[in-house]
Specification:
Length: 87
């Protein structure tokens, strides 16, 4: 997953102050690639990265965001991403 490599490189560069916001949209929880690794990067990097997993089909135990990505999502600011997810 090329995106993971880029995220990891940014977070592992000590003098890089880039803050990352990642929206990972999938159909099911099983479709999420590198979920444990991505969640670990978020947890272990002092707030430099925030990840939001969004599922279109989810089970009762799913605790993150639910819904489908709306057309034009990528043109919006990621800080407003929760308002742009339909449920």
């Amino acid at each position: 997953m090329p995106g993971y490599a880029l995220v990891a490189r940014i977070l592992m560069t000590p003098d890089d102050r880039t803050e990352l916001r990642v929206v990972d949209a999938n159909t099911t929880e099983q479709d999420i690639l590198l979920k444990q690794e991505l969640d670990g990067l978020e947890k272990n990097n002092g707030g430099k990265m925030k990840i939001c997993h969004v599922l279109g089909q989810y089970g009762e135990g799913w605790k993150s965001k639910r819904g489908k990505m709306m057309q034009g999502f990528s043109s919006g600011a990621c800080s407003n991403c929760m308002q742009r997810i339909t449920t």
